[in-house]
Amino acid sequence: MTHPSKRKGNSFERELVNIAKASGIESKRAYASNGESLGLHPEVDCLVGGYKIQAKRRKVLASWLYPSDEVDVVAARPDGGEALVILTYSDWLDLVKKAENSLDKG
User: Fold this and answer.
1) What pairs with residue 27 in β-bridges?
2) How far apart are CA 59 and CA 33, in angstroms?
3) Structural contact between residues 13 and 35, judged by C-beta atoms closer than 8 angstroms
4) pLDDT in 10s for each residue of the chain, 106 residues
5) HSE-CB for 76 with a 13 A CA cutoff
6) DSSP helix, strand, coil percent of the chain (3-state; round to 5)
7) At what angle do helices 4-22 and 89-105 cross, to 10 degrees?
């Protein structure tokens, strides 16, 4: 029987792929959450619009990670490290669709 945390992770990966597909973005989940099944690095859990995603689902995330209603993204960087941008999955999918559309028209 599959461990509950493994089931939770698999469910999240399927959720990401299904939402993307519903948005019209080509997506697929790596078999057994192993990117090698897609010919990629083992850390890759799914492909969404050609982007390699490692999906992490946790019971609780720090509240400061969430963009408020007043901002579109949160940017964070450790001292001496590279900045990361955090935005909602739906906003990111919109950006992916816009990028795909501009490539199609180009």
Assistant:
1) 48
2) 19
3) no
4) 678 999 999 999 999 999 999 999 999 999 999 999 999 999 999 999 999 999 999 999 999 999 999 999 999 999 999 999 999 999 999 999 999 988 887 6
5) 9
6) 45, 15, 40
7) 40
Q: Rounded to two decimals, what is the model's pTM?
A: 0.88
- Looking up tokens 């493994």 gives 6
Are 40 and 54 spatial neighbours (Cβ–Cβ below 8 Å)? no
Cβ-contact 45, 35 below 8 angstroms: yes
Cα separation, 102 vs 96, whole angstroms: 10
Q: What is the C-alpha to C-alpha distance for residues 30 and 39, in angstroms, rounded to an integer?
A: 9
Closest by Cα among 105, 106, 102, 68 to 86: 68
